[in-house]
Each structure stands twice: as structure tokens, then as C-alpha cells.
Amino acid sequence: MSDTIWSYRDSEWAEDRDLVGYDVEGEDGSLGKVDRATADTDGAWLVVDTGFWILGKKRVIPAGTVVGMDHEGRRVIVNVSKDQVKDAPDYDDGAWDDTVRVRHAEHYTQRTGHENREDLPGGSWSTGEGAGGNVGER
Fold first, then answer.
1. pTM
2. Residue-by-residue pLDDT tens, the chain, 138 positions
3. With b meaning 16 or more CB within 10 Å and e meaning fewer, what string describes 99-124?
4. CA 16 – CA 26 distance, rounded (Å)
5. Tally of CB atoms within 10 A around 50
6. d(CA 43, CA 35)
7. DSSP helix/strand/coil, 25
8. First-to-last CA distance in the chain?
9. Are 78 and 26 in contact (CB under 8 A)?
10. Distance CA 41, CA 55 (A)
């Protein structure tokens, strides 16, 4: 299995950034807020507090699903849906190991086809500072 699911498409997105508190927007709306984030090489992920829409659960979303960031607007844009996040394995900070990591990777790769990141949306997804209105437009 490739580790591209665990890597940001642009390494500068999370470099020297505290993403905690950023809004996370998926394909069909808000997914919650970043509760925790890592920027480890080949092991980066976000823990998203989903709030009320799935009973306050936290979900791991691999960095490879991130398709844009708007640091000025404090937003992370991912190419997963609410259903994909809802159906993801529960996040348990005390049980994060290689087996759990593989289970999360399998969940997102079989549902989003992230085995090849070049297939992800591009072009209109802005990655720079102050991305403003064009972030998320397709």
C-alpha cells in the first residue's frame, strides 16, 4: 500500500502551521473542526471533531484527502463526503497503531481512490494564502 494517503499534496500546507480549530469542508458541506493535526512525513492526518452531526464523534482524515487550504479563512478542504467520514472507523487516541492506521487507509482508499493522487481534483483548488472565493469552487 502506498503512503500517499498519509501525505499532503503540498508539504507547505501544514508546515509550521497549527491547524487546530480550522473548519473542515468536504464534498457536501462542513465536516467539523480540526481537533488535532500531524504533519509527519508519510504519516500526516487530521483528527476532526464532527460535532453534533454524528453524535460528537472524532474521525481521522488522512492528509492525502486534503485538496486545498485557506489559511486566511482557517479552512481545510478535503475530497471526502459526510457519508465517507460517518462510515469511517472510530478514532481512539489510545489505540492508534499500524493496524488501526491500515484500517483507516483502506477505508479512504477503497472509497475515494486515493491510490493515485494525480487523479485528485486540481486546477481550481487554490493552495495559497488568502485563497478567498476560489477555494472549493470546481
1. 0.76
2. 345 888 888 888 888 889 999 999 998 899 999 999 988 888 899 999 998 877 778 999 999 999 999 999 999 999 999 999 999 988 888 888 888 888 888 888 865 444 333 443 443 333 333 333 333 333
3. eebeebbebbbeebebeebeebeeee
4. 24
5. 22
6. 17
7. strand
8. 29
9. yes
10. 31
Amino acid at 49: D
One-letter identity of residue 25? E
Q: What is the side-by-side order of every strand in the sheet holding 66-70? A: 58-62, 45-49, 29-37, 23-26, 75-78, 66-70
* DSSP E strands, the chain: 23-26, 29-37, 45-49, 58-62, 66-70, 75-78
